[in-house]
TrEMBL record, chain A:
GO function terms (MF aspect): ATP binding; ATP hydrolysis activity; transmembrane transporter activity
Keyword Cell wall biogenesis/degradation appears in the UniProt entry: no
Domain ABC transporter: 2-234
Pfam families, sorted: ABC_tran
Keywords, in A-Z order: ATP-binding, Nucleotide-binding, Transport
Keyword Oxidoreductase attributed: no
Entries under PANTHER family matching the protein: CELL DIVISION ATP-BINDING PROTEIN FTSE, LIPOPROTEIN-RELEASING SYSTEM ATP-BINDING PROTEIN LOLD
Protein name according to UniProt: Macrolide ABC transporter ATP-binding protein
SUPFAM superfamilies: P-loop containing nucleoside triphosphate hydrolases
UniProt source species: Candidatus Lloydbacteria bacterium RIFCSPLOWO2_01_FULL_50_20
Family: Belongs to the ABC transporter superfamily.
GO cellular-component term (any): membrane protein complex
UniProtKB/TrEMBL annotation, chain B:
Assigned keywords, A-Z: Cell membrane, Membrane, Transmembrane, Transmembrane helix
Domain ABC3 transporter permease C-terminal: 289-409
GO molecular function, a single term: transmembrane transporter activity
Pfam family membership, one: MacB_PCD
Main location: membrane
Membrane-spanning segments: 21-41, 282-310, 339-363, 375-399
Compartments where found: Cell membrane
InterPro entries, A to Z: ABC3_permease_C, MacB_PCD, Macrolide_Exporter_MacB
UniProt GO cellular component terms: plasma membrane
Membrane topology, as annotated: Multi-pass membrane protein
Keyword Membrane appears in the UniProt entry: yes
Protein name: Multidrug ABC transporter substrate-binding protein
Amino acid sequence: MIEVRDLKKEYVEDETSTQALCGVSFSIEKGEFVSIMGPSGSGKSTLLHILSFLDRPTGGSYTFSGRSIDDMSDKELAHVRNKDMGFVFQAFNLLSRLSVYANVEIPLLYSDIPPAKRHALIEDAVRAVGLEEKLHTETGRLSGGQKQRVAIARALVTDPNVIFADEPTGNLDSHSGLAVMEILAGLNKKGRTVILVTHETQTAEFAKRIILLKDGLVESDTPVIFDGTKKTQLK
Amino acid sequence: MLFRDAFKTATRSLAHGKMRSVLTMLGIVIGIASVIILMSIGQSAQNLILSEVEGIGSDLIIVIPGAPASGNFSAPASAQGIIITSLKERDADALRREPSIVAVAPEVRGQAEVVYGNNDESVSYQGVNADFFVARTLGVKEGRVLTKSDIDSGLRVAIIGLDLAQTLFSERVTPIDKTIRLNNMSFRVIGVLDKGGSGPFGVDQGNIVIVPLSVAQKQLLGINYYNDIVVKANSEYDVNFVKSRIAFVLRQNHGIMTADKDDFDIRTQEDILSLLGNITSILTLFLAAIASISLLVGGIGIMNIMLVAVTERTREIGLRKAVGATDTDILEQFLIESILLTLIGGAIGIAVGAGIVGLIYVVLSTFYASLGWAFAFPISAVLLGLLVSTLSGVAFGIYPARQAGKKNPIDALRYE
């Protein structure tokens, strides 16, 4: 589903260039749950931005569902983001003055889904994260954990193939963080591909595979096995 | 993105900051209201002037000395202060012999100080003959009009306008047979004009002194020519035919062979209405143009606030782009917001303008009923108001909307 080969990203500012990704290669199959880990400055956020079509690489190749990013216009990238990708951000990025319903509706505004079908989709997505009672509550009045669940509902509403989560538990307490990760794990069990960026090992271990980045390169790419009591990342 | 979704999104954003939206609209409200008020007042003034000119009768023709002005809009040379002496007594005599003409009233005019007792007033005076009252269908409220014998004998008699009578004489004193001084010459008042009546160019006749033509020419002005000749057409003839006959007679008198050499200009009521209509329309447009400066200021206010909104909502723009909005979707959303602001502001401005125009009408019709001011609220002003407000929404909203549309989603999502 996702295949990157020798992926590079160079930022040039004031005649100074920074190599954020120095040639990353891996593949992610449909239905995988992958954590991308690494220290600050390792290039994990840059990689996530490229994988989620928010940015373009400066070298190498990236193929998503058989199509190269190089062959797609910005408008096509926006269309794929809307149709095939869902986003969960560390800072939630909810419009606090709007209700849960209106926030979850946002991706549908830019989709081909007719208005008549939207209501049911929004209700289903909100139900999936257990917030149906808060449907018409302003998101500014919700707790951090509830806000992140709204963000997940927003990511789900267009029924995307892949969910990109960028430090989804970074702003949450451990209890809320756990609840959010369980929802993501549940979505993965139902067949959705989940790609997670995190620096927390506990969070990363919800995934079935961890890609460790260091200095813009893949340092390790290992599956996570469950031994009955805890998950262990194989070296 | 469907238009209804873009519209809903825009209205939500505006509703969120109600006070800001209202204050932003204020500039447009004032601008549109100013344009509406000035256009309506201009229209009312135009109607008033034209109705007064219409009151002089469609069979009235005015012969002005000097070559015809080019086009109806241009003022005649004589009206620009150039003295032209081509219209003389023999012209009036020749016109009197025309069967298609029932009255020929040459006129001369001047400015003078009129004094009665301790009261004085600066006025216009007119030297006329007896036909003047036939041609102009003017009557007197008190006394009598000038007769042929008054003219022929060169008596220093005068008819004064109604407003002048009130200025010079107290209510208890009748002006008739009183002696007034005009340019230090004594004139006996024999009549007071009745209310209303405009001169051929819309001159107010309330503050005027009318004296015999011969006296005005010889004793007051010392001239032997006329400022104009007012002709009343025989109603059995078409006015344009009479106009052509006048031209024929005057060309014969002045030895002119072709029309392009004419040293006179003939204007019917229709010509004068057209001239005045053009002048007042230009004046109205000029006033509207001045008022539109406030619209410009209002529009700049809209642009300013929209730029602030784009900056404030950078993360929202980033989010919308992340979940599938294109540059165009974002541009549309912000453009609709600015158009909505200006359109609603324009609608309120039209309502405010209509209210103020109505108030002006009520005040004028209550306290200055004699003015005959009519309520005019041209539909063109409403349409123009809506069109201009929509266009200013586009003009002043496009730059902020483009800025919003061009934002990079990653930078926008990271914006603090």
